[in-house]
Design brief:
Low-confidence stretches of chain A: none
Largest interface: A-B, 38 and 38 residues
CATH superfamily of the largest domain in chain A: Jelly Rolls
Structural class of chain A: alpha+beta
Largest sheet of chain A: 4 strands, antiparallel
CATH architecture of the largest domain in chain A: Sandwich
Strand content of chain A: 15-25%
Helix content of chain A: 25-40%
Strand order of the largest sheet of chain A: 1-8-3-6
Mean pLDDT of chain A: 93
Radius of gyration of chain A: 19 Å
Number of domains of chain A: 2
Oligomer: homodimer
CATH topology of the largest domain in chain A: Jelly Rolls
Number of helices of chain A: 6
Distance between the termini of chain A: 55 Å
DNA sequence: TCAACTACGTGGTTATAACCACATACATCT
DNA sequence: AGATGTATGTGGTTATAACCACGTAGTTGA
């Protein structure tokens, strides 16, 4: 396992090279590749492992039998998924994890961590501390979607989402990680209705966009 | 501080009485009372403390300037809130915490925990491990709301929510912790529209209810 | 360069949830 | 008990998002 590539990810923050390679061994680190569109983890199943996206990106989504899709979040390079289910190893997953593009995943077995079965080594406490940060951030992310899907109007949802991305990226011009259908599924909207409203917002001078590149206009009103 | 009352809460799980009282001191435990309707923590502010509900209950909500309310969750006795913001002590809160009834809160200062400034004592790792569990469960809770608010129809949302409560409580007759307005704000609906749909669902033999007591009928269809 | 496929957008229709105004039931207080 | 206040329900109207069918643009591949 190549330590250099991952020593800067949140989960190994503050750890020495030695600790990291101990941790990688202790956590049974396994690398795996997936083709775009593949389901990496299936809703209903359980897992003792969390995932770190080394290359590519994945989406966390729920697909019901009628073909409806809910997208909870997008997980990009150097970000994590399934840490919740990995830790609570018995909890059946409510979501699928799907490869959004060809990607490479590092799996880490964390299901035993909180049980204290392992005698505490220096790396275990550090990993747990870092997992805590990851979990709390994931919390903010899920809260975020709750807010973006709250406005009754399409325009309200779009603005809530685009604003948050803009603030996060620190610029009014930015790419979003979703295509239209995904954006609609993230904002809990119907795709064509979203298209229409985006058009209107462009006509109204609120935003500009091309594909998944968006430009938030400074609102002229005080 | 009376240890007996709280030794069974999740955050002190697996700790000796001695560890618990050390932890209470180290976490600067403070008890406080709030009257129904009081805002305990304000959106926009930061906090280094998390809350444990000793008595009563609180709601986690967002109130915008136009009077719209979003309820993210209900936190009952022996449950926790603001652990996310307490840990990420710089993160401005996106939500208010409001006393749902007269209540008593135990505040624990956890803002320093993950920084490793404190030299590791036996209780710190245990608290962190337990916080991890709490955080991941909070994650599932937030995911839950994302799912309950996803169906396009009022009936779909109500069923999604009531089903999850029913499963969680293990019975088809149960109380929900919300009044109508709160239920509407949780499911992202307008109150009167919710009332009407509940009535229709009763007429259709899907559910029965009186106030906040609900009865899920076994669906007759295969 | 043409064909096939996918992503995206548009027009028109309809179902339905929001909204408003009000009624009724229920609880609280003196 | 009566009065006040709050929670809940109902009827009617309207705005709007979902839905369906189709067109167009943009991409991939032979």
């Amino acid at each position: 396992m190549d330590v250099n590539k991952i020593e800067n990810t949140v989960i190994f923050q503050g750890m020495s090279e030695r600790e990291i390679s101990d941790a990688l061994e202790g956590l049974n680190a396994v690398k795996k590749k997936y083709k775009k569109g593949t389901t990496i983890l299936h809703a209903g199943s359980t897992t003792k492992r969390m995932g770190l996206v080394l290359e590519g990106s994945v989406t966390i989504e729920n697909n019901d039998v009628w073909g409806n899709r809910i997208i909870l979040s997008h997980v990009g390079k150097n970000q994590f998924f399934a840490e919740t289910y990995g830790l609570l190893a018995d909890e059946p997953m409510l979501v699928d994890v799907v490869a959004n593009e060809n990607c490479q995943i590092l799996f880490l077995t964390i299901g035993f961590l909180h049980r204290g079965t392992l005698r505490p080594k220096s790396w275990t406490t550090k990993i747990m501390s870092n997992l805590l940060i990851i979990s709390t951030h994931k919390n903010l992310l899920l809260s975020g979607r709750n807010f973006h899907t709250a406005p009754k109007t399409i325009r309200g949802r779009v603005m809530s989402y685009l604003n948050s991305v803009s603030i996060q990226k620190g610029t009014t011009v930015f790419d979003i990680p979703f295509d239209r259908q995904q954006m609609a599924d993230y904002l809990n909207l119907e795709r064509t209705a979203l298209s229409k409203e985006l058009r209107k917002m462009k006509d109204d001078g609120l935003i500009d966009f091309h594909k998944n590149n968006f430009h938030l206009m400074e609102s002229l009103e005080l």
